[in-house]
Write the structure tokens for this entry.
Amino acid sequence: MALTELLAARRDRIVEEALTALDRAHLAHYEATDEPERRERLTALYDLAAEAVTSRNLTRLLHHAERVARARFADGYDLTEVQTAFNVLEERLWSALVEELPPAELARAVGLVGTALGAGKDRLAATYVELVSRGRVPTLDLAALFAGTAGG
């Protein structure tokens, strides 16, 4: 089975497994969100990641990661909560790749999936840092991180 075929054929199973893993993480904001919405969010992320891998174009996935970061930040989610959602999806994708693809195709497939979701997580984190640096989180003192540095 080719990577693109696997992404299409295993979509529902991978999203379901990622949803189960997300539930096991017991993240406060995700537990407060109903199951259909969590499923919808993971499915949207999966579809954009699969599109990025298939098209070799990260644009829509990166825009999505930025929108998600802004929305979750505004709703008070911690960055680690949102990154966990990306991570559980990535882990389930990797497991499916290992189970289904021949060894000769595995390294390339894992590289493509890892690159796409890694870029998404990077954009997510960068957007969070940008929002935090605007001073919108009164409980976070970034100055303490830079004490003793040339710039701090």
